Automatic annotation (TrEMBL):
This is NADPH:quinone oxidoreductase family protein. Keywords: Oxidoreductase. PANTHER family: QUINONE OXIDOREDUCTASE-LIKE PROTEIN 2, SHORT-CHAIN DEHYDROGENASE/REDUCTASE. SMART domains: PKS_ER. Residues 11-315 form the Enoyl reductase (ER) domain. InterPro entries: ADH-like_C, ADH-like_N, ER, GroES-like_sf, NAD(P)-bd_dom_sf, Quin_OxRdtase/zeta-crystal_CS, Zn-ADH-like_protein. GO terms for molecular function: oxidoreductase activity. Its EC number is 1.-.-.-. It comes from Streptomyces toxytricini.
Length: 325
């Protein structure tokens, strides 16, 4: 089979090599999967760069989110077990963690439903307790993670403010249904949010960016608001000023979704059932901007690493094209 492998960590275009390798052998409690579609995630870039909290043994195949087919013919969503990741024709994954792929989504969409939407649902509902009628601010609203949060916020009845970088991404955020779109490259985010909310600010902020985005959030967070810290795609980890948290009476909440898979797997399955329901009604639909062949995977990971993409890039290793419903 063909698989992208990393022998030495570095920038994806240089570090990833497409090789012919034997099909992976499942370990205890694992199954082998034929990969139909693999969604590219920012953690894939961090893995290739050697900067992720998990460091698989070299060589490894990146790809942490797939829609795949089991050997007994089931269509599933899975997080592959590294070092046998999803940017390959075959991968392995824990059998107990497989989830049924929603019938309402094609393979590429199903591959992109899991990590971003689970993170969004747990962040907005379990951590921030978002309520209908509240104002939700989403940073990087046109990206893969942000677009999921926008859709989930709208489904929850929130007023959604999307923050983006550039006119093209602003158009995408508008199409997603944001009630207000702020272009951080041309506008003062805090001032626009304060103006839009009549001075109150955002009740909930969803931040997968960090750095300047977090700083802007603290300037426009409402009284008793909640800032959900999801990641640091901007490259800078902010240092919260706790005196400011105290003075303005807001909360800073961390969200590492992967912990729930180990600590509360039943909650993950319940969340998947809810996401499947929302997908069936059309309330959520992964924003797949490009469907790419396996040969283009290294370039896709590099583009996600560089922050130049809109929506999700999905690689289709399956010879049938990975598009069947």
């Amino acid at each position: 089979m063909q698989a992208w492998r990393v022998h030495t960590t570095g920038e994806p275009r240089e570090a990833m090599r497409l090789e012919d390798v034997p099909e992976p052998v499942p370990g205890e409690g694992e199954v082998r999967l034929r990969v139909l579609a693999a969604a590219v995630n920012f953690p894939d870039a961090l893995l290739v760069r050697g900067r992720y909290q998990i460091r698989p043994p070299l060589p490894f195949t990146p790809g942490v989110e797939v829609c795949a087919e089991t050997e007994d013919g089931r269509r599933v969503i899975a997080n592959p077990a590294l070092p046998h990741g999803g940017l390959a024709e075959y991968a392995t994954a824990p059998a107990a963690a497989l989830l049924p792929a929603p019938d309402s989504l094609d393979d590429a969409e199903a591959a992109a439903l899991h990590i971003g939407y689970q993170t969004g649902w747990f962040g907005l509902h379990r951590r921030a307790r978002l309520q209908a009628g509240e104002t939700l601010l989403v940073h990087a609203a046109a990206g893969g993670v942000g677009s999921a949060a926008v859709q989930l916020g709208k489904a929850a009845g929130a007023t959604v403010v999307g923050v983006v970088g550039g006119k093209a991404k602003a158009r995408t955020a508008e199409e997603l249904g944001c009630d207000l779109v702020v272009d951080r490259t041309a506008e003062d985010v805090a001032a626009r949010v304060k103006e839009f909310t009549g001075g109150r600010g955002a009740d909930v902020v969803y931040d997968p960016v960090g750095g300047d985005a977090y700083t802007a959030s603290t300037k426009c967070i409402a009284f008793e608001g909640r800032i959900v810290v999801v990641g640091f795609a901007g490259g800078t980890v902010p240092a919260p000023a706790l005196n400011h948290v105290l003075v303005k009476n807001y909360s800073v909440l961390g969200l590492h979704w992967g912990l729930y898979a180990h600590r509360d797997p039943a909650a993950v399955r319940d969340c998947h059932a809810e996401l499947t329901r929302l997908a069936a009604t059309g309330a959520v639909k992964p924003l797949v901007s490009e469907r790419l062949p396996l040969a283009a995977a290294a370039d896709a990971v590099q583009r996600v690493a560089d922050g130049t993409t809109t929506g999700r890039l999905v690689v289709l290793p399956a010879r049938d094209g990975g598009t069947r419903p």
